[in-house]
Amino acid sequence: MGLERLASVMQDVPSNFDIDAFEPIMRRISTISKRGVYKGRVGHEDVDGRDASYRILADHMRAAVVALCDGVEPSAVDAGFVVRKMLRRSFWHASAKLGVDRFACAELVPVVVETLKSAYPELSTATERIEKCIADEEHHYWSIVDRGTELFEQMRLNIPKGTKVFPGDDAFVLHDTHGIPIEITEDMSKEHGLTVDTKKFLELKEEAKALSRSKSGFKKAPSLDTGGLKSSEKAKYNYFLDEDGNYVFPPVATKVLALFHGSDRVDSLCSDGSLVLEDCQFYAEEGGQKCDKGFLEIEGKTVFEVSSVEKVDGVAVLHGKVMGNSKITGNSVLTQKIDVNRRMALMRAHTATHLLNWALRRVGAGRGQRGSSIEEDSLRFDYATDDCAGEDDVVENVEEFVQSVISQGKPVIVEEMPMDKASELSQLQSEFKEVIESSFLLFVTLCVLVFLEI
User: Fold this and answer.
1) What does pTM read for this prediction?
2) Is 261 within 8 Å of 329 (Cβ atoms)?
3) What is the 3-state secondary structure (H, E, C) of the chain?
């Protein structure tokens, strides 16, 4: 039973939306709505769907405010897409069903904050930022809708006389090319006595998804059962600096835990396949960073080329092919040899993302890292921005700071400590919550300890 459901029982009210946490939000919506107050109707009693729209608007705005406070920005991907979809659904219900004026939804932010600030005190300091974000998003939304209205009219005029169906092909073009939600198209069609061919629309939408997957070259990996495999990744941290200041990655010998051919677990491997090692030295692809590559040897002979590494249920799985006429069995002891040049390149790009993160914070640009893509010869750094994006002085200051640190050759410090102690570091930059062992190696990069003195 959820917290709101429990509250509705304790407060003896009909639904979650009648509890004291929602009542102020519902009351505020009624002041900006031109369709009357909330009456709690559901199903067939809610003939025009007005009360359902009240609930959708209150629920979505509440969720979006918390997400925005946590740093999730509206975008076209991942969590940002979910927030954008919630907000746009809110804007549509507010205007179409409740008669709320355009650009008024941001007015609900203060009352949402007021109902939640005792549990989330950080909302109080983020209220203005959240209001601005929602207002900007609504302006963007309505600019899309206005453009779509003109396009809809052009398409409608091309419909043969006597036809009462708006073509699904046109609805898809409005949606896919111009970003017009299908609900908007249905509303506009209804005003002209038309219904939308949603069957055709959905068919085209699925075809577009399939085409996108094929063009990206994405192939679904075989489903591997790694349950019960006790694999460690501590070996991937097995490196040091020699007397000349060069990184050394000693080969690590380990046992085979499991072999796979396709999705089938096998006793031996003589061709393409996958394997899990007891002590894995290879980094898997995750968190936007590309994986290690390399080779596996048996008694000095190369027997397996590692082409990619992925995590399957938390276990690193090495994909590749057996070399020549070699054979790997479940009893094999393999020596791992990572591609050192690739690892070094990925390490440089990884550290560069930390440098950019710290530099952007230092000059007051944006609100922190939101993602990254780390490859051998390039990196992409995503961060949430306010109005400062693109200002020449910000770019110059960031570049100057990063170049300065690089030229000084400042070291990356590695220290092992419990997670509870690490979380107390005042300058620790942690943008994403991850499951980490309670006591493990903490890689403290330039932007944490070294920068404390800058």
Assistant:
1) 0.55
2) no
3) CCHHHHHHHHCCCCCHHHCCCCHHHHHHHHHHCCCCCCCCCCHHHCCCCHHHHHHHHHHHHHHHHHHHHCCCCCCCCHHHHHHHHHHHHHHHHHHHHCCCCCCCHHHHHHHHHHHHCCCCCHHHHHHHHHHHHHHHHHHHHHHHHHHHHHHHHHHHHCCCCCCCEECHHHHHHHHHCCCCCHHHHHHHHHHCCCEECHHHHHHHHHHHHHHHHHHHCCCCCCCCCCCCCCCECHHHHCCEECCCCCEECCCEEEEEEEEEECCEEECEECCEEEEEECECCCCCCECCECCCCEEEEECCEEEEEEEEEEEECCEEEEEEEECCCCCEECCCEEEEEECHHHHHHHHHHHHHHHHHHHHHHHCCCCCCEEEEEECCCCEEEEECCCCCCCCHHHHHHHHHHHHHHHHHCCCCEEEEEEHHHHCCCCCCCCCCCCCCCCEEEEEECCCCCHHHHC
Per-residue CA distances from 315 to 45, 50, 181, 228, 311 (Å): 52, 49, 40, 10, 5
Distance CA 321, CA 306 (A): 7
* Domain limits, the chain: 3-158, 234-338, 345-409, 411-453
Tokens of 330: 């479940």
234-338 classified as CATH 2.40.30.130: yes
Distances, alpha carbon 429 to alpha carbons 22, 312, 379, 402, 405, in Å: 35, 27, 19, 17, 17
Nearest to 401 by CA among 370, 365, 373: 365
> Tens-digit pLDDT profile for the chain (454 aa)?
588 889 999 999 999 999 999 999 999 999 999 999 999 999 999 998 999 999 999 999 999 999 999 888 888 777 888 999 899 999 999 999 999 999 999 999 999 999 999 999 999 999 999 999 999 999 999 988 888 889 999 999 999 989 999 999 999 999 888 878 898 899 889 989 999 999 999 999 999 888 866 654 445 556 788 988 999 999 999 998 888 888 999 999 999 999 999 989 999 999 999 999 999 999 999 888 999 999 999 999 999 999 999 999 999 999 999 999 999 999 899 999 999 999 999 999 998 888 888 888 777 766 566 677 899 888 887 776 655 445 567 778 888 888 888 888 877 777 777 777 776 765 565 544 444 444 444 444 333 333 322 2
